[in-house]
Amino acid sequence: MLKVKDIVSYFEKICPFSLCEEWDNTGLLIGDENAGVTRILVCLDVDESVAREAADKKCELIVSHHPVIFHPLKKISANSCEGILIKNGISAVSAHTNLDVANGGLNDYLAEKLGLENTEILVPAGEFDGKTVGYGRFAKLKKPEKLIDIAKKCAEILGAESLRYMGDDDRIIEKIAVNSGGGASMADACFDKNIGLYISGDFKYSNMRDCAQRGLCVIDAGHYETEHIVCEWFKKVLSKKFDAEIIASEKNTNVIKYLH
């Protein structure tokens, strides 16, 4: 029978937890590695509603991108996220920055979704299995496109209700960089690579101004929007390897609302 530790071992092979940042928290964070698994709930974030959803759907395991335990816990109540999981015998495995940097991981999947081919790593972060791993991906487009057309396509593909962007609508873009989640701090890596457009999330006004002054267009597609596709990635990868039902969470939605 499939066990929690089999899932953990598989992630160790494709996106080792040793690749995660020191401040991160990944791996089996709640539960029993020897527990059996027939049904897995995959999600970006784990909160009380997602924990109850897993219990209602009789899932023995949650696999998330953002860690279920990130900040130090001072207590666990019966109605807290952690309490619900423990009470119902549900294990939780999180693959976060290790999945961001891994080859074939979330950044490669984001680049693929947005139509980029023959990508290179934007910010190297180490090495695994003899190959460089790192944050973000960039590539030259097969055919140059206008910024506004890329922005519209980006919103459609990522299901973004609204996105912020910066640059001349008619600017012709030849090379694009993408970085899932909050990648604003890595914009500097674009400047010496002749990248015309950087797509990521969580840009401050000052980030946008700096990029504008240095000639880099930006699409802030949102942290959630650039990472919720991890559910597709989890489902695709786990269903190929394991005989278990993989369910994408319906309760893990974007907490940010937009007034148009």
Please describe the topology of this protein.
Elements: H1 4-14, E1 27-30, E2 39-43, H2 48-56, E3 61-64, H3 81-87, E4 91-94, H4 97-101, H5 106-113, E5 120-128, E6 131-146, H6 147-158, E7 164-166, E8 172-178, E9 197-200, H7 205-213, E10 217-220, H8 223-227, H9 230-241, E11 245-248
Parallel strand pairs: 2-3, 2-11, 3-4, 8-9, 9-10
Antiparallel strand pairs: 1-4, 5-6, 6-8, 7-10
Helix pairs in contact: 2-3
Q: Could you explain how this protein is built, in words?
A:
Helices cover 30% and strands 25% of the residues. The protein is an alpha/beta fold and 260 residues long. The protein folds into two domains: 4-99, NIF3 (NGG1p interacting factor 3)-like (Udp-n-acetylmuramoylalanyl-d-glutamate--2,6- Diaminopimelate Ligase, Chain: A, domain 1), CATH 3.40.1390; 103-223, NIF3 (NGG1p interacting factor 3)-like (Udp-n-acetylmuramoylalanyl-d-glutamate--2,6- Diaminopimelate Ligase, Chain: A, domain 1, 3-Layer(aba) Sandwich), CATH 3.40.1390.30. The model has no long low-confidence stretch (mean pLDDT 97). It holds the Pfam family DUF34_NIF3. InterPro entries: DUF34/NIF3 (IPR002678), DUF34/NIF3_sf (IPR036069).
